[in-house]
Design goal:
Layout (H helix, E strand, L loop, with lengths): L4 E11 L4 E11 L3 E5 L6 H9 L6 E5 L6 E3 L12 H6 L7 H10 L13 H15 L3 E5 L7 H13 L3 E5 L3 H7 L2 E6 L2 E6 L5 H33 L8 H16 L12 E2 L6 E12 L2 E12 L3 E5 L6 H8 L7 E6 L5 E4 L12 H6 L5 E2 L2 E7 L2 E4 H7 L4 H4 L8 H13 L2 E2 L1 E5 L7 H13 L3 E5 L3 H7 L2 E7 L2 E6 L2 H15 L22 H28 L4 H4 L1 H35 L1
Parallel strand pairs: 3-7, 3-8, 5-6, 6-7, 10-19, 13-21, 13-22, 15-20, 20-21
Antiparallel strand pairs: 1-2, 1-4, 8-9, 11-12, 11-14, 16-17, 17-18, 22-23
Helix pairs in contact: 3-4, 7-8, 17-19
Length: 603
């Protein structure tokens, strides 16, 4: 049975005074479609979404929405004039019956509806726009980077709502895990053309690379044919002028075809410059605690970061991830405990707030006014890892053109600001790199490149991110801030931590006691557990935490590649101890689950 169309674009063409954004674009979105919309930064993804929403009028072509079909658009920069609070904005133009949906969305997205719009950050405004759209529940939802500024818990909530909804949606996102979990087809914008691929997002990148490979082969064949025909024209045209004018015209047509082809934009030329080699121990945090306004952020936390480690710091928004980075790098002082930095530390910081970028400065000034990269006496050059470079040439490495070099930073998109900040920190040698939310606004190709560059980086990395796929690809250790001062350290990335996350959260949560008519006896309880079992259930979380801490220490010890040759007996004992504790941890977790299920079954 054919599905009903919700929106149709036919022969859409659009320019903004220069090269066309789209040429002869046609597509249909049907009931139940769940589409990923991807492409390079600047390819026109947000513009296409606005065309779909009817907010941008194309130069040519038609947009058709059947009568009675509703289309909703999540604005990146929502207009909130006349709304005192974010809640006022989210409920605007909605009926009273939608109030509960706004409240549910606000809770899931961790939005404070009472926050004054004048005091709201860009991320909070975008969450309000997303809550409004989720409450509207239109037939077709258009989502522009919905996971930006959401923490992992809020992303999980959004994923579950979108998985359950009957509404169709188109989502622009760089979050692979989000797209893989939800979308069933992909719209790919590439040089003004939109291609559609049905199927899971898992297969998109292989299909994209195959498409590019076929394009390169066809271009190579065309170039060879032009070269052969041009040789013929030079060598034989005078003898066959009248007979072969058609062949000459064909050669002209081949050249016109080749000239009309648009070359793909190359990848940014990214590279982190290695500074002096740091000491083997980069950061040693011992028993650190920190509280703000009597709210405990960290309590008695210890961590050792060794040279070459890639440490991802994860947790809900507001739990203190950036503050922990500042404590670990010496920018802040803990209330208790101490942090010691190793020798020869050269620090480079990618700040999620882009605070080091002056919005009124030009891109040129952003690079040449930096003391660390300024070339003495030269206003047109920047020192890049010890080598003078012309500022325009260096900016071209990061996909900026000469015109943009003189433009103000405020004119850049989010992805372009991220690339400019990467250009600044990559010009400086470093051996300790802090990346605080680097994945926001970057396209998938640039994320792939950043991941590869980090793989080649000789130094140590501290990473804060909500991008689960990126964490999995980069991190060797995950530090999870779970609130109320609790921090859990796990080897590996997000996928290594996630299976234990719910177990740890349940174990740490206070157990509510069922109402009882009289106190339970020692052998039987309303919970279904004996006194001994109840006591065991209460002590197991601490035992699990202790075993995890011991495992982390042993893994850290065995991470020393010289231990085996230097102290083979110690290496053997540590290996045996690690195996023993891993077995005990598995048994303790299994015992906890059994007792918890027994208690829940009786409640």
């Amino acid at each position: 049975m054919a599905r009903a169309p919700l929106l149709q674009l036919s022969d859409i063409s659009l320019t903004f005074g220069g090269d066309p954004v789209f040429r002869d674009l046609s597509l249909v979105i049907q009931t139940g479609d769940r589409l990923a919309l991807v492409g390079r930064n600047g390819s026109g993804k947000s513009t296409l979404l606005k065309v779909m929403a009817g907010l941008v009028e194309p130069d040519r072509g038609a947009r058709v929405v059947p009568s009675g079909t509703s289309v909703g658009y999540m604005e990146q920069e929502p207009e909130m004039e006349g709304c005192a609070t974010l809640g006022d904005y989210a409920i605007r133009d909605l009926g009273a019956d939608a109030l509960w949906r706004v409240e549910a969305a606000a809770e899931g997205l961790k939005l404070d509806p009472g926050l004054e719009t004048a005091k709201a950050s860009g991320g909070e405004r975008r969450r309000a726009a997303l809550a409004k759209l989720m409450a509207e529940a239109p037939d077709l939802m258009l989502l522009d980077e919905p996971t930006n500024h959401l923490d992992i818990e809020a992303i999980a909530w959004l994923e579950s709502r979108l998985a359950e909804t009957r509404q169709a949606f188109v989502a622009i996102s760089h979050d692979r895990a989000f797209l893989q979990a939800l979308t069933q087809a992909t719209l790919w914008i590439d040089r003004g053309e939109v291609r559609r691929r049905d199927g899971s997002f898992d297969g998109f990148e292989a299909w994209r690379d195959e498409t590019w490979a076929a394009e390169d082969l066809a271009r190579h064949k065309l170039d060879r044919k032009i070269k052969a025909e041009a040789r013929w024209a030079v060598e034989g045209i005078s003898a066959r002028r009248k007979r072969n004018q058609g062949r000459v015209r064909a050669l002209q047509a081949l050249r016109a075809e080749r000239a009309a082809q648009i070359n793909r934009e190359g990848a940014a030329d990214m590279q982190f410059g290695a500074g002096p080699k740091s000491g083997r121990k980069v950061i040693e945090a011992k028993g650190i605690s920190k509280a703000y306004d009597e709210k405990v952020i960290y309590r008695d936390f210890s961590l050792r970061v060794m040279r070459g480690d890639r440490v991802a710091i994860v947790g809900p928004n507001g739990v203190g991830k950036t503050s922990l980075i500042e404590l670990l790098t010496g920018a802040r002082t803990p209330d208790a405990g101490e942090v010691t930095l190793g020798a020869n530390i050269e620090l480079a910081v990618f700040d999620q707030r882009r605070a080091t970028l002056d919005p009124d400065a030009t891109l040129w000034e952003s690079l040449t006014d930096d003391k660390a990269t300024r070339v003495s006496g030269r206003s047109d050059q920047v020192m890049v890892r010890g080598t003078p470079r012309h500022v325009v040439g260096y900016l071209k490495d990061f996909l900026f053109d000469e015109v943009q070099a003189r433009a103000p930073v405020r004119s850049l998109s989010g992805g372009e600001k991220a690339r400019l900040l990467l250009a600044k920190i990559m010009a400086k040698p470093s051996n300790l790199l802090v990346l605080d939310e680097p994945t926001n606004d970057l396209d998938i190709e640039t994320l792939d490149l950043l991941q590869d560059v980090l793989g080649d980086y000789d130094g140590t990395v501290l990473l804060v991110s909500h991008d689960r796929d990126f964490i999995d690809r980069v991190a060797t250790t995950t530090v999870a801030l779970e609130g109320a001062g609790r921090i859990v350290v796990h080897a590996g990335g997000w996928s290594d931590y996630a299976p234990k996350r719910q177990l740890v959260a349940q174990a740490a949560a206070p157990k509510s006691k069922p109402a009882q008519a009289k106190p339970p006896t020692e052998t039987t309880r309303a919970s279904g557990l004996s006194f001994t079992e109840k006591h065991r259930l209460e002590e197991l979380p601490g035992e699990i935490e202790r075993l995890e801490a011991e495992i982390n220490k042993l893994e850290e010890l065995l991470g020393d590649s010289t231990l085996f040759t230097r102290e083979p007996v110690k290496f053997q004992k540590a290996t045996e101890a690690l195996t023993e504790r891993q077995e005990k941890l598995s048994a303790a977790e299994e015992e906890w689950l059994t007792l918890e299920e027994k208690a829940e079954a009786a409640s």
